[in-house]
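User: I'll paste a sequence; please echo it back and then give the predicted structure.

Assistant: Echoing your sequence first, then the prediction.
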Amino acid sequence: MTGGTKGRHTIKYYTDYVVFDLETTGISWQTDRIVELAAVKVSGGQVAEEFSTLVNPRVSIPYGATQINGISDADVADAPFIEEVLPAFLDFIKGQVLVGHNIASFDIRFINRACEESMLALPDNELVDTLPFAKAVLPGLAHYRLTDLTGHFGISSEGAHRALNDCRMNRLVYEYLGKALENADLRSCPRCGSILVKRSGRFGSFWGCSQYPNCRYTEHDSGKTS
């Protein structure tokens, strides 16, 4: 079972894209389940269409998850199963750049697992993850959660942790990040040409390629590369 993605990761602004988000029973793409799936299609920088559905995970939703997203077992009791909604979702995102917050290590892994279990082809959309995007163009922030970014840009976070609301918020965040990108002094990876982002590791801060794990170039603040 794969946890990766077939699509290419980029830090770039597009005027046409789909921003998507999930709510789940927990944080493990290997054992937890999707309980809500939403997406917002954007054309020319403007919302064109929305997709949203609750999903019956076939398991009880843990109390901790309900405390975060407000979704209970009763809410999903009559909701469709993931294999029933995946074809419509995949059709909604077909041929589109996918935008989301932390999608590269979270949301897309859940989608890939669900596709494999439903015997559907994995999506190969290009991905723009607003988490490394924000770290690249806003290096001075203390935290980079979606609600941190909405606060930074003055966007209302009311209704956060519901999939469609998070999509709407992250669409606005992505638009602001696109403007910030125009004035950002970014460093390019000498190995693949993608943008370098600053990260923290066991031995302190370092610069790493935004295409990780496809490109594993790193550069410590001392200038040493690996």
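DSSP finds seven helices and eight strands in the chain. The mean pLDDT is 90.
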